[in-house]
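User: I'm curious whether this sequence folds into something compact or stays loose and floppy. Could you predict its structure so I can see for myself?
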Amino acid sequence: MKVGQIIQNRPSSDVVSISRERSVADAVRLLAEKRIGALPVMDGGRVAGIFSERDVIYRLADEGAACLARQVGEVMTSPAITVERATHVDQALALMTKRRIRHLPVVEGDTMCGFISIGDLVKSRFDAVEHEAQALREYIRTA
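Assistant: Here's the prediction. I'll summarize afterward.
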């Protein structure tokens, strides 16, 4: 299965993002409000980086509450690691494991067309395994 199949029914306008000029406090509020773990950071319509819970934790540990007044662009993880629609789910999972990340923007050229989490990928693999198991059970039943 390809990453594009996971996001095909999700409008790209549904992706929650933030601009690099916004404050870390604004980003934290948005993460909490939407109950999500990361935000793509946008700059002029392009993905400039990723702002995640880890970015907040690391900065709080280093700087304390003062980091909340900083701009997202100062603390985000950059450059963003991205995948394309044609990337196979297994390749995306391997990339996430290797780079120790949990979120990936899906891009076409310079334009973000989706945002996936490791949970999205695991669910797609689980669904595929379940489908295969069902097909094998049906094959055995009718053999």
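Summary: The chain has a mean pLDDT of 92. The radius of gyration is 18 Å.
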